[in-house]
Every structure is written in structure tokens, then in C-alpha cells.
Specification:
- The complex is a heterodimer of chains A (207) and B (187).
- Chain A starts with a helix and ends with a helix.
- Chain A has one domain.
- With 207 residues, chain A is mainly α.
- By secondary structure, chain B is α+β, with helices and mostly antiparallel strands.
- In chain B, 40% of the residues lie in helices and 20% in strands.
- Chain B contains 3 helices and 6 strands, in the order H-E-E-E-E-E-E-H-H.
- In chain B, strands 1, 2, 3, 4, 5 and 6 form a 6-stranded antiparallel sheet that branches.
- In chain B, strand 2 and strand 3 form a beta hairpin.
- The chains are: A mainly alpha (207), B alpha+beta (187).
- At the A-B interface, helix 4 of A face helix 1 of B.
Chain lengths: 207, 187
């Protein structure tokens, strides 16, 4: 049972191994704080959709399952959007259109179709949490590399006197701006996927 | 046929439940979202007012671009306005953009602020920064408002590269706004 949770982290990491959800992963990974916000959004939506798809798997007719899943997913995304807009307006502004695009994030539909509709509630919850954490982990890794190289900063949440931005000496004055742009996103993600595969091959004896 | 009704009915039930839940969520979050919008608007109004007092909002339903305007007064006397703040709707790359701009009574641009928009982060969204709008300040009376890239200096046009549609959208709205101020009668 527990392996349903851990598989999403490394072995079946949605971004690095399954190559799902690359569009938002590349789009929002310019700042570390965006990665955290997107990760939290995906966790909530994935958890909600996996729970409901798993609960309703005997109720939803086979022929209209995809529209049903989309309705469920879109509802959760809209909730996330409204809550973010109301209580985290700055994060909402920086994530922009990518929040609404969680609807078509293939991780979520992929898990509904590929896992939750044929597994128990408990397993679906663990799968959702594991996958979402795996996605967040991947996003954090990409955004960390991109922000450090591309802006010379690390942006976290502002708390008290701390404005949320850690500046890295030298790099902040002459950042390699390409990493903040789309080309850099593809480059970083490509190398990380390669690194991931290599590490996996080494650990798993190249299976 | 019976099967079809059953399947359709089930899908309809799912949709109805989803709609009900969203309705409730909307009722909860809407006041807070409105509040945030209001605070943001007041902050922006204050910024573009250049320290002048802001009069009461007047709606302009018959204009396509100018949505509403606020007269500006230098003193507390609400007689003849010394300028105007216009709320304008421009069209950008990602749909409509709300632009707030203050003008002298002769149509010269004082200050501009980009409000709600769906421009691309990193490109068009850069227009939200105050420094972006510097190219427009002081134009509109003696100097024309730049509406094409070749009317900008090298440095300024570099800043709009990759986001020309955003730039043109803002510039065109400002031209309309400047003309609108010139045609206002109560000055």
C-alpha cells in the first residue's frame, strides 16, 4: 500500500519519468515560490479528483467517464482559483493563466483515468499525494536551478521582516537571463530528466 | 434509448452537484475578491493622481475605450478640474487590459498604470512596472503619444520587443484618452 505513495516521488515521478504536466512545469518554474504555489494547487486538485473519481467509479457510466472526470477536475480547479484570488492575490497574479490550466494538466486526468477509477479510495489518496509531491519536487528542482542562474535570487514567501527574496552574490548582478526564458526551461528540464534517468539506471542496475 | 437517458442523467447529476458546490464557493469568496480589487484600484488611483485630490467617478457608457473618469483638483475646491484620471479598456495580447491614466486638461499624459490584464508573464506583463510607462509621460500635447515602435528611442523600443501588441494596445488607449480629455466640456 505504501508504495502507492512513494512511487510518485522518484520511480514514477510525473515530470521526470512519466513526462506528464510539462507545460505548467516549464511555464511557472521561473521562481521558487511559484513552484510551491503550483504544487499546492495541484495537490489539492489531484487529491479532490482522485477521491471523487475513486468514490464514484461504479456510478460514472463508462461511456461518459472522461466528461465526468473533466467536470470534477474543473470544479476543483475553479475552487482553487477562487480561493487563491481571494486570499493569496499576489501568488494568483504571478501564476496567472496556469492556475486555470490545471484543468488540462495531464497528470490529473492521467491519474483519474489510469489509477483512481480502478483502485480503492485509500490507494487513490496515497497515489494523489505521492504524485503531487513528486510534481512539486520536480518543479522545485527546475525552478531552483532556473531562478538561481537566471535571476540570481531565491524567492520564498515573505514573512515579517524577511521580504522573501534571498539574493545570491555575484549572480544577482550578472544573471544568465536565458535560464529565465523558455529556452532555459527546456534546457534545464532536459538535463534534469537525463540526470534522473542516469541515477535510476545506476540504482536499478540498468533495467 | 433508455440507456442514453440513464447515462445523460448521471452526467447531468454530476454537473448539477458541481455547479451547486461552485455556487456556494463563489458566494464565500466573491466579497473578498471584490475587496482586494477595490483596494488595488484605490492604491493605483492614488499613484496616478500625482498628489491631487480625486473627485467623484463619472461613468462614460457611450465610449468604447474610456470606461469612466475621475476629475482631479489641486486644492480642496471642487470647481474647475486641474486634470483627469481615465479608466480605459485597451486590447492586449491576452484580451482586454484595464488601464488607469491621469491627464492634464490639455491632454498631456501625467501617469499611467496597467491594471487587470492577461498579458504574457515576462513579456507583456512587464508593462505593470512603473518604469515601463515612462515613455508615455509628458506626451499627448506638444509631443505625440508614441504608437509605433519607431517613435521610441532605441532603449525604449528594446523594452517593448516581444510585446509589441501590449505596447500598441496601451498607446492606442492613451491616444483615445487624450482626445477624450480634450473634448470634455467641464474644464
Amino acid at each position: 500500500m505504501f508504495k502507492e505513495f512513494t512511487k510518485g516521488l522518484i520511480r514514477e515521478n510525473p515530470v521526470f519519468v512519466l513526462a506528464l504536466g510539462l507545460c505548467p512545469a516549464l511555464g511557472v518554474s521561473t521562481r521558487v515560490v511559484n513552484a510551491l504555489g503550483m504544487g499546492a494547487g495541484v495537490l489539492f486538485v489531484l487529491l479532490g479528483s482522485n477521491i471523487f473519481v475513486s468514490l464514484l467509479k461504479n456510478y460514472i457510466p463508462e461511456k461518459v467517464r472522461i466528461p465526468s472526470y473533466i467536470v470534477i477536475i474543473a470544479s476543483f480547479v475553479t475552487i482553487v482559483e477562487m480561493v487563491m484570488q481571494a486570499y493569496l492575490p499576489d501568488l494568483y497574479n504571478s501564476l496567472g493563466v496556469f492556475v486555470s490550466l490545471i484543468v488540462v494538466n495531464c497528470i490529473i486526468l492521467g491519474r483519474a483515468e489510469g489509477f483512481a477509477n480502478r483502485n480503492t479510495l485509500g490507494a487513490s489518496i496515497l497515489d494523489a499525494v505521492g504524485m503531487a509531491i513528486g510534481f512539486t519536487f520536480a518543479l522545485l528542482l527546475i525552478s531552483f536551478v532556473r531562478e538561481v542562474l537566471g535571476f540570481g535570487t531565491i524567492t520564498l514567501f515573505a514573512m515579517g521582516n524577511f521580504d522573501g527574496v534571498i539574493e545570491i552574490p555575484v549572480l544577482v548582478d550578472s544573471p544568465a537571463r536565458v535560464f529565465a526564458l523558455a529556452a532555459g526551461a527546456l534546457l534545464v528540464t532536459g538535463y534534469l530528466i537525463a540526470g534522473f534517468r542516469w541515477a535510476q539506471d545506476k540504482a536499478g542496475g540498468g533495467k | 434509448m433508455k440507456d442514453l437517458v440513464k447515462i445523460g442523467g448521471k452526467l447531468a447529476v454530476i454537473c448539477a452537484v458541481a455547479a451547486a458546490v461552485l455556487g456556494v464557493m463563489n458566494a464565500i469568496t466573491e466579497p473578498q475578491i471584490e475587496h482586494i480589487k477595490q483596494v488595488r484600484l484605490e492604491k493605483a488611483l492614488k499613484q496616478v493622481s500625482k498628489g491631487m485630490n480625486i473627485g467623484e467617478q463619472k461613468a462614460v457608457p457611450e465610449d468604447d475605450v474610456v470606461d469612466a473618469y475621475y476629475p482631479l483638483y489641486e486644492g480642496t475646491d471642487q470647481g474647475v478640474p486641474n486634470g483627469y484620471i481615465l479608466r480605459m479598456i485597451g486590447s492586449g495580447y491576452g484580451g482586454d487590459m484595464v488601464i488607469l491614466a491621469s491627464f492634464e486638461t490639455d491632454g498631456e499624459v501625467l501617469s499611467v498604470q496597467l491594471m487587470e490584464n492577461s498579458e504574457t508573464p515576462g513579456l507583456g506583463k512587464e508593462a505593470e512596472k512603473q518604469s515601463y510607462m515612462k515613455k508615455f509621460t509628458g506626451t499627448g500635447d506638444q509631443e505625440p503619444i508614441p504608437v509605433r515602435k519607431d517613435m521610441l528611442s532605441q532603449e525604449q523600443s528594446d523594452a517593448v520587443t516581444g510585446a509589441t501588441i501590449t505596447f500598441v494596445g496601451i498607446a492606442k488607449a492613451l491616444v483615445e484618452g487624450s482626445d477624450f480629455v480634450n473634448e470634455l466640456e467641464d474644464k
